[in-house]
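Please produce the structure of this protein holding protoporphyrin IX containing FE.
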Amino acid sequence: MTEDPERDGARMSFKGRMAYGDYLGLGDLLTSQHPLSDAHDEMLFIIQHQTSELWMKLAIHELGAARAAIIAGDLQPAFKMLARVSRIMDQLTGAWDVLRTMTPSEYTQFRHILGESSGFQSHQYRMIEFVAGNRNLAMIRPHEHRPADAKALWDEALRPSLYDSVLGQLRAAGFDVPARDRLDQPHQPDPAARAAWLAVYRDPVRHWSLYDLAEKLVDFEDYFRRWRFNHVTTVERIIGFKRGSGGTSGVDYLRRMLDVVLFPDLWEVRTEL
Ligand code: HEM
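Below is the modeled complex.
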């Protein structure tokens, strides 16, 4: 007999009630894909970017809350949120497998219609970098035509970063680590912080929370690097060494970005252990 879920108690009528699509705003979400060409693969391209932006939105939500928890000295919830961010980055990395199914022949059918738009102009991507502590103020310029996005990045650049909040925990534990004078710059290797991390990594049992916190950041950066690496490889596979639609040298630019380090102290300390 065919299943009738109503007999099992499922609600089948939603007149005047909130249903799944109402709660999730699916009316807007599923009508926000507007291909500008007839190319079959443009839908893939749009949805891949949109879903990435949704996951980035969640990552920003989690990173901001993790930072607030760390500042409050409430580390357990921060561990949970940072672990989630790493899973999100992993999810984003896995998503390249879908995009990789698009060949250069397919992409060239609609690449011209993108004009100069590029993921380079993703303000949420910059926000993730800025929250983590990789603050390159030049990256705000492409957002000046949208004052709210530019302002959000400026505001973020002047707040203590996630890593600054972690340095605050080192200080709270008695380590002599100075606060940064310029919050709006990327984190540079700092000998005092590295000495503190060395003590933490040499005696994890004594400094377990700090040790755990450091490893959560390294996890996050590790997954972030995998995303970058998969991006540049996918880009090379699809456009070779053509210039990017955003105007950069393309693969050469993206390869340089592979060398950007979010938390230099935490990587450098490993050499000394
Ligand atoms: C056919 C697929 C793709 C190609 C060919 C491509 C190509 C490029 C290129 C060449 C750049 C360098 C900037 C430029 O000159 O345009 C770039 C940057 C970027 N792309 Fe993609 N991309 C693709 C898909 C994606 C997807 C799905 C995302 C997810 C949101 C994404 C996010 C980014 C971000 C965030 C940057 C800035 C990276 C940085 O400045 O470090 N891209 N992309």
